[in-house]
Amino acid sequence: MLKIYEQVKAALWEMFQLFPPRNGQILVIGCSTSEIIGARIGSASNMEVAEEVYQAISEAKDVFNIQLSFQCCEHLNRAIVVEREIQLKHGWEEVLAIPKPHAGGALAAHAYTQMRDPCLVSSILADYGMDIGDTLIGMHLKRVAIPVRVKIKTVGQANLVLARTRPPYTGGKRAEYPEEKRVK
Fold this sequence. Notes:
Strand content: 15-25%
Oligomer: single chain
CATH topology: Rossmann fold
Distance between the termini: 27 Å
Shape: globular
Largest sheet: 9 strands, mixed
Number of helices: 5
Number of strands: 9
CATH architecture: 3-Layer(aba) Sandwich
CATH class: Alpha Beta
């Protein structure tokens, strides 16, 4: 069985090879470390698991030149941890809190400690999504989200859902649209 780090890395690499990100696009990650270890969401935050997940995601950031954002749990109203530089660039509304394992989630708490200048924002519109453990990241994806099917279906014991977004179609029968890379 693959380790958590390997599962996360394999899933992200496959998604980004199928649908390569443009420079600086944003990936939002929601993660329940409780679900990964087989417990009910929000009941058993695990910092060691969070570190493994973060390591794989951080490597993807460097390889694919994406920006990372981490969704907190419902106790922080699903706020998002980002680098302040990204928050300022996009004009996102900052909210005040510091995520902790049982109030924000283990991955968000760990990410907060790893960033140069972290802050929380109330919401974003990300280009890609990774939802580990049914954390409901959809509110932080751009309007037209499309599931991405990869070989990895779970991380540990948690369900895995990946998504990409695309601009909405406009026009009608006479409109012409650019081709998108499609999975066969």
